[in-house]
Amino acid sequence: MADEPAQVAWPTAPVPSVPGDVWHWQLEAMHVVSRVRSDLRARIAHPSVASASTEDARDGLLLVFEELASNALRHGGGDVRALVVAGPEGWLLDLSDEAPDRPPVPAIDRDPALGGMGLHLVTQLSSSVGWEKRPGRKHVWARLPSGRAEAPEQAQQRDRLPEPRSGEFRRE
C-alpha cells in the first residue's frame, strides 16, 4: 500500500571472518540472556581484553549483545545461538536464529518511549552491521571497535605538523 511506511532493513552482507578468540552460547529463553551477559562481562574484564579496549567500548559490546540477543529470541526464535569473536581491533557479534525469512527491520516513525529502538542503537555503537540468510538460519551481526585503535584519519592528523597561526611563516 502506498500509505504504509517503507520498511528499512539492515544491509544484507555475509558475516565477516575475523581472527580472534571465539566464544559461543546457546540462548534457550530470555532469562538466559542476563546469565550469558554476565559471562561475557567476565570475559571482557580479563586483563588481556580490558587492556586492549576502553570501558565505554566494553559497555557498548554488552549493550549490543543484549539488544541482538533479545531480538533473536523475540522475533526469530527456535534455536538461538550467540557468537562473539574478540579480535585485535574489536569484536564481532553474530546472533543467529531459525527465522531466515524475517530480516532485522529498525523501527520507523515510532515514539522512542514505545521501545523498539534497539537496532538504531546497535547501528550507532557499531562500526558495521549486516545480516545474511543461510539454510534454515538468519545471522544478524555487528562489528564493534575496541575503542583503542585509532582510525586512519586520526593517525594521519596526528602525524601532520600543525599549520602556522598567521599567514607569515619564516624558516630560519
Automatic annotation (TrEMBL):
Biased composition, class Basic and acidic residues, residue ranges:
156-172
Q: Which residues form the Histidine kinase/HSP90-like ATPase domain?
A: 51-143
> Which superkingdom heads the taxonomic lineage of this protein's source?
Bacteria
Question: What are the GO MF terms of this UniProt record?
Answer: protein serine/threonine kinase activity
Q: Does the keyword Kinase apply?
A: yes
Arranged from A to Z, the UniProt key words for this protein are: Kinase, Serine/threonine-protein kinase, Transferase
CDD domains listed in its UniProt record? HATPase_RsbW-like
Q: Which InterPro entries match?
A: Anti-sigma-factor_SerPK (IPR050267), HATPase_C_sf (IPR036890), HATPase_dom (IPR003594)
Q: Region Disordered: what ranges?
A: 142-172
Name the chain's protein.
Answer: Anti-sigma regulatory factor (Ser/Thr protein kinase)
